[in-house]
Design goal:
Elements lengths: L7 H14 L1 H10 L5 H15 L7 H14 L3 H14 L3 H14 L2 H22 L1
Helix pairs in contact: 1-2, 1-3, 4-5, 4-6, 5-7, 6-7
GO molecular function: peroxiredoxin activity
Protein name: 4-carboxymuconolactone decarboxylase
InterPro entries: 4CMD/NDH-1_regulator, AhpD-like, CMD-like, Decarb_PcaC
Length: 132
């Protein structure tokens, strides 16, 4: 696979992505890239992580809460867990995440919020176990 040339948006997006998700997560994702999904990885790095997550209008803590709520409402379980783990880097607290999931219950339905609460509890247990 040839190495593509990346512009400023990609570089900014990759820095934000690493800051939010952590180097280990991004390194695993980068190592798993194939020729087939490289354009998708470049798209999300530039669109999500540069165009959206790098904007200064709201904090990363707030973006984290919004993202978790949206992913919970959409029942995107793996992404919910990933962004809960990332909240360690964004400043979103467990109380913040609980409040976001309470909003999910009202605006997207109790079953979606209930399921996301289970994911959150499991993810927090994993985080705590790793912290020792």
């Amino acid at each position: 696979m040839s190495k593509p040339r990346h512009g400023d948006r990609y570089v900014e997006g990759m820095a934000t992505r690493r800051s939010v998700l952590g180097d280990a997560h991004v390194d695993r994702a980068e190592a798993a890239k194939t020729a087939f999904d490289t354009p998708f990885q470049e798209l999300i790095t530039e669109a999500a992580w540069s165009h959206v997550w790098s904007r200064p209008q709201i904090t990363r803590r707030e973006r984290s809460m919004i993202t978790i709520a949206l992913l919970a409402a959409l029942k995107q379980d793996e992404e919910v867990a990933m962004h809960i783990r990332a909240s360690v880097n964004t400043g979103a607290t467990r109380d913040d995440i609980r409040e976001a999931l309470l909003h999910v219950a009202i605006y997207a339905g109790v079953p979606a919020a209930n399921h996301a609460m289970k994911i959150a509890r499991k993810t927090f247990d994993e985080i705590d176990a790793q912290a020792g």
